[in-house]
Structure formats: C-alpha cells, structure tokens
Amino acid sequence: MVSAKAGWALVATSNPTAGRGAPLLPARTADGGRSWITVAPRAIAGLVGEPIVLQAATPSHAWLAVYLSVGRGRHTTEVFGTQNGGASWSRSAAAGQAEPIAVDFLDPAHGWLLENLGAAMNQNWVAVYRTTDAGLRWSLTAQTLPGPQGGISGSGLPTACDKSGMIFSSPRTGWITGGCNAGHEVLVTHDAGYHWTAQPLPITAAACSPAGCVINPPQLIGQTGFLTIGHYPATGELLLSRDGGSSWQVRPLPAGAGPYPQIRFFSADRGIAVSGGTQGLIGSVFYVTADTGRSWARVPQGRHFPVGAYVDFANTTDGFAWISSLEITSGPAPDMYVTTNSGRTWTAITPRQA
User: Fold this and answer.
1) Quick check: 37 and 57 in contact, CB under 8 A?
2) Considering only CA atoms, which of 309, 313, 302, 317 is closest in space to residue 334?
3) pTM of the entire predicted model
C-alpha cells in the first residue's frame, strides 16, 4: 500500500487450489483494499506465470519486471512502467534472460534490475542491469563469476549468500541485500552498479549464528536510513544511518519484536515494527516509534494471525493483513483485514476483483 487508500498487488487470476497454474497479474486499489482492478499490460495478459516482480512507488507510478517465454524454451526479462495507474504501460527492451529478483526505479528514467542466474547451497549467481532512458536500453553493469567455483567477480559481486533485494538512493549509490547461513553481508555501490563492496556493519558475524541473518534493503528518507537485520533466536537488529547510508549504528529493539521483525518508517521519525518469529509467525504485540527508534510504544494486537499471514502498513496507524494465495490449500480466498489504530482492532473485508 502506498497510502491508506491506494495500493498495488499481484493477484492470482484463478483459484490456486484448482490444480492449475494461477498466473499473477498487477492490480490496483483506490478504496483501501475493498476492490481491486486488474491493470496488466496487454503484452503480458494471459501469458505470465511466475516470476513477476512489482515495484509500487505512488498511486500512479509502478513498474513490473516480467520473465516472458519467447518460445522453444527461451525466455527474456522485460520491464513495464506506468505513470497513470495502469491505464497504459511503456515496454522496455529485453534486459537479460534470467528470472528477476528485484526492480528499482529511482525516477521514471533511472532504473536497475537484479536477475537470478542460479542458486544452490547458499551460493547465488546474479546479474545487475541498468537503464538511464526509462528502459529503452539496458546495460549489464555487474555479474557474479560463472560456474560452481564461486568467488568474487571483478565487479565485486560475490556468489556467497542469497540475494533477495536491491535499492538505490541516488543515480550512483545503491545496495544489494539478502541472507547468509553464516555471517552477514550488505553490498554497496557508489558508481551506479558497476562495482560493489561489502559494507561494514556494527554487528558481529557471531550475531548471525546459528541460523544466519536475513537482511532487507535499507529505507532511505533524506539522509536518514534504516536497515533491519533478522536473526534467530535473538531479537532482530535495527541499524540507523544519519549520513545517507555511509555508516550505521545500532538502535535497540524491544525484546518482543522477535527475531524477524518487519520495520517500516514513514518519515525520519515515525515508524512501526511488526513483530515476527520463525516460519512467518506474526507476533501479538506491535511497536510504534515517533523518535527515530529511540523509544517504542507497545500496541497489543486485537487479532491473532496464523502462520502465512502478511501485514503491510501505509503509515503508523493504517494497516492491512492478508493470506498469500500461495498459502491457501483449500476453499475460497480468505478475507483481508484493515486497522486504523496500529492493530488494536482489525476489521474483516472481502475484496472484490474486477
């Protein structure tokens, strides 16, 4: 959700329990999730399965990275962008031939695409592509070494650790994050994605034992940055930057935030922490802050959500919860739930899809 009323989603076009593939297509809501309109580009309607990656920026602006079949077992990745809520879409040139992991547009012209070239045993081969003309042309900026030997390529991209996210804060500075079985890794670039280095963090490798660390891409609001690190069994970490992500310091979290908290800030001061445990378990108490994480106020939740639930807040009070179609094993799609008081109470709604 990009506001309390407007948001984007990838919606299954058929019942995922029916034994057939259920292609995902982009949809948009303007009434707080009560109704959804499918707004897929005509070029992909009826053709898309998975993976498809969505970046929702505003009620009007969104981008899709789509893995398309071009016949005889061959695929290509293309990026589609809209500036009018999906009424029309621009179509990019082909950008590689691998499955997209993340797409990130800093503005309508400058974008990056992270592609998955293969993964095994906590090794992940990836490629980074860049456009400066809204996708008319894409250039390969960095790639991991090919083959099973692993190591670090000339671009600095290592094969070690799974890569799950990428974000840029300027035309030159960006991050790739993911998860490691041991230790932690955040990769940063200062030349638009051509060279990457591991960024030092104020936590030890031992903090990521025994289950490893899961790191989400940082959030940058002006020069203030937030980086969430999840690690079992201890409470997750929140790191704060005051210099645009150049350096980080630890902001302690309440113990009740759990090992895998979902933290989102909406200004340099105000944010919410959705407590999280293993297997996607959502905690019974959330936390809100109005002072950049120096202190957190407890918000007991008015509803218990099962494993497999997802929670998304548009601000510190207006939130949404649902069950992913991938978690549904039988019956109709369940209701969504909305809150206007940080989760103290939740109201069920039945979304309508058009």
Assistant:
1) no
2) 309
3) 0.93
**Residue carrying the six token digits 């935030």:** 257
How far is Cα 155 from Cα 146, in angstroms, rounded to an integer? 13
Record the tokens describing residue 241, joined without a space. 């930057």
Gyration radius (Cα) of the chain, Å? 20
Half-sphere CA count of 122, side-chain side, radius 13 A: 13
CA of 37: how far to CAs of 178, 214, 323, 335, in Å?
32, 33, 19, 17
Please check whether residue 187 is in contact with residue 215, taking contact to mean a CB–CB distance below 8 angstroms. Answer: no
**First-to-final CA distance of the chain:** 18
**Tokens linked to 159:** 């094969």
Per 3-state DSSP, the chain is made up of helix, strand and coil in percentages (nearest 5) of: 5, 45, 50
3-state secondary structure of 265: strand
Position 325 scores a pLDDT of: 61
The per-residue pLDDT for range 67-119, each reduced to its tens digit, is 887 777 788 899 999 999 999 999 999 898 899 999 999 999 999 999 999 99
Mean model confidence pLDDT for the chain = 91
| 3-class secondary-structure state, position 117 | strand
DSSP 8-state symbol, 326: G
Cα gap 52→55, rounded to integer Å: 10
Q: How far apart are CA 348 and CA 31, in angstroms?
A: 14
pLDDT of residue 17: 61
- Strand 139-143 relative to strand 162-168: parallel, antiparallel, unpaired? unpaired
Instruction: Please give the average per-residue pLDDT across 197-220, as a whole number.
Output: 90
The answer to whether the CB of 328 falls within 8 A of the CB of 16 is: yes
Please state the φ and ψ torsions of residue 25, each to the nearest 5 degrees.
-130, 150
* Phi, psi (deg, nearest 5) at residue 345: -135, 150
State the DSSP H helix or E strand holding residue 258, giving kind and residue range, or none if neither.
none
Higher pLDDT: 147 or 91? It is 91
Tell me the two tokens of residue 108.
Answer: 């309508």
DSSP at 172: S
Closest CA to 335 of 319, 318, 347, 345: 347
Tally the residues of the chain: 354
Q: What is the CB neighbour count within 10 angstroms for residue 23?
A: 19
Q: Position of tokens 């445990």?
A: 277
